[in-house]
Amino acid sequence: MPTSKADKAESLNNMPLIAMIKLIGGKYKPLILWRLMTGTKRYSTLRKEIPCATAKMITQQLRELEADGLIKRTVYPVVPPKVEYTLTPQGESISPVLQTMYEWGQKHLQTNQPIKTKT
Amino acid sequence: MPTSKADKAESLNNMPLIAMIKLIGGKYKPLILWRLMTGTKRYSTLRKEIPCATAKMITQQLRELEADGLIKRTVYPVVPPKVEYTLTPQGESISPVLQTMYEWGQKHLQTNQPIKTKT
DNA sequence: CGGTATCCACCTAGATACTG
DNA sequence: CAGTATCTAGGTGGATACCG
């Protein structure tokens, strides 16, 4: 059974990483998940905690995370509207990854000068 | 001592994550670093191991990684040309992050159906 | 071998205004 | 409150051709 170039490429153990990147590769996704790790949050709370992202972005990323089964969106039929976001078990299982990223970032920020912003 | 909105936002412990994302947020950067974790690689080798990225992309990402001090580029003045890429200590320090990402991806791919491609 | 240069289709993400 | 709609500048990344 011949191995195609693509197969060979993907069997180089790249797939898990690729899968991961697809899930949390979004610019603000790690941030959102990170914030939700401390518990259920309302939309407006998330916005406040991630002010560098616009409403549109937050919403978009939340929808994608929801579609990927990482978070759950709960709408309370009250007025004024209330929407809460929670990590699903799937989403919670990413904690170690975020934790590791966070710790590395922390160490890096201590020992090095601030990361230069690209652009 | 008053905390500005921006300060408050960034003091929510988002910074380390943001730093991390800036460094390895590039589409192929985790892949490149991951590949280099198994040792020094030539440019052509990297290209073969990450066929989903074009030459332009690989080169670009390599340059950024180099600029960020994560990898070292060594040119051997021979003919035909030979260029090798190696992780710097800084780059190696990211291993745990990639490792964690990889492991999560692996587990996820086992228990779940393939990640659906966005778009 | 290890790139660069150029062109271009798409995508991203911000700003702004509006809604149930 | 929690979005959606629209427009748009700028960035991303693929294809292709060429170079030292």
UniProtKB/TrEMBL annotation, chains A, B:
Keywords assigned: DNA-binding, Transcription, Transcription regulation
GO MF terms held by the record: DNA binding
Taxonomic superkingdom: Bacteria
Lineage: Bacteria, Pseudomonadati, Pseudomonadota, Gammaproteobacteria, Pseudomonadales
Domain HTH hxlR-type: residue ranges: 15-113
Protein name as catalogued: Transcriptional regulator
Species of provenance: Entomomonas moraniae
